[in-house]
Amino acid sequence: MKVTILGCHSASPHENKNPTAQLLDIKAHRFLIDCGEGTQVQLRKAKVSFVHIKHVFISHLHGDHFYGLPGLISSFRLLGREAPLHIYGPKGIKEVITLLLKLAHSWTNFPLHFHELTAQDSEVIFEDEHVSVRTIPLKHRVYTNGFLFSEKLGNRRLNKDALADYAIDKSQFSLLQAGKDVTDETGTIIQNAALTLDPHKPKKYAFCSDTAYDPSIVPLIQGVDLLYHEATFLQQHAHLAAKTGHSTAQEAAAIAKEAAVGKLILGHYSSRYKDLTPFILEAQEIFPQIILAADGAVVS
Amino acid sequence: MKVTILGCHSASPHENKNPTAQLLDIKAHRFLIDCGEGTQVQLRKAKVSFVHIKHVFISHLHGDHFYGLPGLISSFRLLGREAPLHIYGPKGIKEVITLLLKLAHSWTNFPLHFHELTAQDSEVIFEDEHVSVRTIPLKHRVYTNGFLFSEKLGNRRLNKDALADYAIDKSQFSLLQAGKDVTDETGTIIQNAALTLDPHKPKKYAFCSDTAYDPSIVPLIQGVDLLYHEATFLQQHAHLAAKTGHSTAQEAAAIAKEAAVGKLILGHYSSRYKDLTPFILEAQEIFPQIILAADGAVVS
Q: Are A146 and A274 part of one and the same domain?
């Protein structure tokens, strides 16, 4: 599981300060999370192949979280994309993208599927054999969802050292991975546990931007390996956070602590702060495992 | 008169290859012409104060010419803008900007005036005592206008050398500038021509992007000081130009020659060309005064 920070600044884009966008590599998937203006340039800088992005999750319809999406869709078209694209986001996203395509007298030459979100409670919005994605309802000025990405328990893993001691035909490996016992060349049944290791522990990533401090999300994100939680302000500007529906570094850390997450990534910094060091200091007073998001950074 | 090229590449933005946007300083005005994704970052790089932009002219509703506009409007709002903003562009631009603002639950805290264009013939869309702007109907895949920016004849200029020989009170200078005769301290009438110089010759700038080769625009742009004409392709790809409603460097030069313009700026290069030198060589075979647009370049 790998998170690439494409942009981690709030509001207006500046040179080297991009609005929110992240790329999540999880199992066989490459998910795009939010898509502020300039995201496609950030994807190119990160040398990400556009064609592998099949699912885009948009938290809310403020410009700094989705004004890069129309251009990205245009570029997909120009690049001759044929693979379907799935877009998950608040109701209204279909209307605006459809209107933009209509005004340009163009339609995509690939299937474009909108999954418009309206639920107030957490819901599963994507699921396959590898991964599930559910919404994390957030408290912001407009309808906003964070997203919880959960790996599913994988297959049992072949224990190569143990296998060396038995005469097991390779054709039976898939049975072993599925947890079944197998028979060796002499006809003896070998217990699965003797030949396999437990699957890797499934990983979870929670993306929470934008949101006011809201402890009601804690049960949803309990114990995730990695949490991105916005920290637009420092505590000295807590009144601005409260007024604008954002969080402080201290508040983000408090959520991380209460949810006992593995690590906390901070981001969505207000442009008023030239030096970001105080964010890490403020958060570490509450929760030690802090990562400051930076445009282009990769968190594994 | 000064043109700042904010972006001069076609289609998808790349690092250091921005889609179309230009800033025109003409008399007291600072006009933004087209606004591809990333324009606000380009404006910041060019150290342009956002507040001085009061009029935005959008040629057509393809993404590479206006997907930077919603973000720019958002930034104006965040920066506390109060001055009115006028947006000139094809019908539909009001609907899409209004929808984006509605979805974000925000409205601008400054007056936003839309001037939607539908005319097939050239029309004056802005005029004051200094400047007029009229459309140049272009031939593209969607409804598209270029824009002709014309300075008006200014005041007569005070001839400081001549004034030194007369006893003329400063209170009469505005009469002189308006072309009136004045009276010196002895009561003698002094002819205006003795004290003033002709006004500067008014300048004209024509912006033509995107368009197929279309000689019908020549009468409109006849004799302009500076012409920007798109040159998406080289002549070797004339079939692509014809197919996509674009021009070649040779075609742009032919228009410049026929209209007897002062200088021709080429731009809107297709990303297939790594080296742009052939554009200047191809165009100069037809018309000598060629400038290759480059992001960040200033043409005075």
A: yes
Task: Kindly state whether A34 is in contact with chain B, defined as any CB-CB distance less than 8 angstroms.
Answer: no
Cα-flanking dihedrals φ and ψ of residue B181, to 5°?
-75, 160
**A64 included as an active-site residue:** yes
Among B11, B70, B78, whose Cβ lies nearest the Cβ of A11? B78
Sign for the pseudo-dihedral over CA of B29, B35, B39, B45: negative
State the Cα–Cα distance between residues A224 and B127, nearest whole angstrom.
61
CA distance A14 to chain B (A): 5
DSSP codes joined into one string, B176-222: HHTT--EE-TTS-EE-HHHHEEPPPPPPEEEEE-S----GGGHHHHT
Nearest CB partner across the interface for B45, out of A15, A93, A100: A15
Question: pTM for the complete prediction?
Answer: 0.91
Which of A143, A176, A197 terminates a domain? The answer is: A197
B162 and B80 inside one domain: no
Taking the Cβ of residue B46 and every Cβ of chain A, the question of whether any pair is shorter than 8 Å is answered with no
Is residue A149 domain-shared with residue A280, that is, in the same domain?
yes
Q: Is the dihedral of CA A123, A125, A129, A131 positive or negative?
A: negative
How high is the ipTM of this complex? 0.89
pLDDT tier at A123, thresholds 50, 70, 90: very high
What Cα–Cα distance (Å) separates residue A15 from each residue in A68, A86, B44?
15, 30, 8
Pairing of strands B112-117, B124-127: unpaired
**Cα dihedral A158→A164→A170→A174 (10° resolution):** -20
pLDDT digits (tens, 9 = 90+) for A125-165: 999 999 999 999 999 999 999 999 999 998 999 999 999 98
CA separation for the pair B253, B242 (Å, rounded): 16
Q: What are phi and psi of B19, to 5 degrees?
A: -70, 175
Q: 3-state class of B283 per DSSP?
A: helix
- Dist CA B188 CA B194 (whole Å): 13
Residues B237 and B265 in one domain: yes
Q: Which domain holds residue A82?
A: 2-154+200-299
- Residues 129-188, chain A, touching B (beta carbon < 8 A): 141-142
CB contact under 8 A, B11 and A74: yes
3-state secondary structure of B60: coil
